């Protein structure tokens, strides 16, 4: 299996480096071996760190029940956010930096305290959040035609690509995290919407799951990290020249332009 893990990691890495999408890696590591998929993710993460990248947070994926059902799982997944994958709010992301991009509107949390204990409760997580932001996650896939199952997306860093953070930090006491509405616009036309409750019932629930998971793995979430909590509405395909704006009640907006 270790050889298969290395081969899968190399396949994904080569796809990212060349911009040529690859075949699914589930044929190497299996359809259901989540541990192996996370080993693939970790191997490529370590190589990125060795090359000078810096981890600035985590992303949570598969927070919608419909997507979990589609991929045959009953829990979310997670990936890593790297410093060089942030796109500044309102800026242009070069199209050649992307692979099969899609956009999602999400609530991001920035932590003010570490979360080192696997037996934490919601109150621990709420007290550890410094503030929330509107955000856009640009997901992407190194796997041809998005032909993915659960082990493919986990191995591929939870299909992470880039992220955009809004510039209006808001304390939790000023937000309705379950009732807030998210509206995603493409070229000024609404193409996706949803409530905060679409993310596992609440973005707090998603963060509780991630914090417990990372603490159990000995990689606890730390103060200062950015956590993308998961999509609040359907994912949106984008093409060169598009502009995406995300508006979330109480959090303002974030926007990104896609280069040609």
Description:
With 260 residues, the protein is of the alpha+beta class. It is built from seven helices and twelve strands. The strands form two sheets. Strands 1, 2, 4, 5, 6, 9 and 10 form a seven-stranded mixed beta sheet that branches. It has a five-stranded mixed beta sheet with strand order 3-12-11-7-8, with no helix packed on it. Helix 1 packs across helix 3. The protein is globular. The relative contact order is 0.21. The model has no long low-confidence stretch (mean pLDDT 96).
Keywords summarizing the entry:
260 residues, alpha+beta, seven-stranded mixed beta sheet, five-stranded mixed beta sheet
Entry summary:
This protein is α+β, with helices and mostly antiparallel strands. The chain contains seven helices and twelve strands.
Topology:
Elements: H1 2-18, H2 26-29, H3 34-50, E1 55-61, H4 65-71, E2 77-82, E3 92-93, E4 102-111, H5 122-128, E5 129-139, H6 150-155, E6 160-165, E7 181-186, E8 189-195, H7 203-216, E9 226-231, E10 236-237, E11 243-248, E12 252-258
Parallel strand pairs: 1-9, 3-12
Antiparallel strand pairs: 1-2, 4-5, 4-9, 4-10, 5-6, 7-8, 7-11, 11-12
Helix pairs in contact: 1-3
């Amino acid at each position: 299996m270790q050889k298969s893990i290395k081969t899968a990691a190399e396949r994904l890495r080569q796809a990212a480096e060349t911009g040529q999408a690859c075949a699914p890696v589930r044929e190497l590591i299996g359809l259901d071996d989540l541990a192996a998929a996370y080993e693939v993710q970790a191997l490529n993460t370590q190589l990125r760190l060795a090359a000078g990248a810096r981890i600035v947070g985590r992303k949570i994926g598969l927070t919608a029940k419909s997507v979990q059902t589609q991929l045959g799982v009953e829990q979310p997944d997670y990936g890593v956010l790297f410093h060089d994958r942030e796109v500044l709010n309102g800026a242009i992301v070069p199209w050649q930096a992307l692979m099969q991009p899609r956009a999602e509107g999400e609530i991001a949390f920035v932590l003010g305290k570490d979360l080192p204990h696997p037996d934490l409760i919601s109150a621990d997580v709420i007290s550890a959040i410094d503030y929330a932001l509107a955000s856009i996650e640009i997901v992407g896939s190194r796997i041809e035609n998005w032909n993915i199952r659960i082990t493919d997306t986990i191995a591929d860093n939870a299909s992470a690509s880039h992220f955009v953070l809004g510039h209006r930090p808001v304390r939790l006491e000023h937000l309705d995290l379950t009732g807030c509405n998210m509206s995603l616009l493409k070229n000024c036309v609404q193409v996706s919407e949803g409530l905060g409750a679409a993310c596992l019932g609440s973005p707090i629930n998603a963060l509780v799951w991630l914090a417990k998971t990372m603490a159990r793995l000995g990689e606890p979430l730390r103060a200062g990290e950015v956590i993308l909590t998961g999509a609040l509405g359907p994912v949106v395909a984008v093409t060169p020249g598009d502009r995406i704006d995300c508006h979330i009640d109480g959090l303002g907006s974030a926007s990104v332009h896609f280069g040609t």
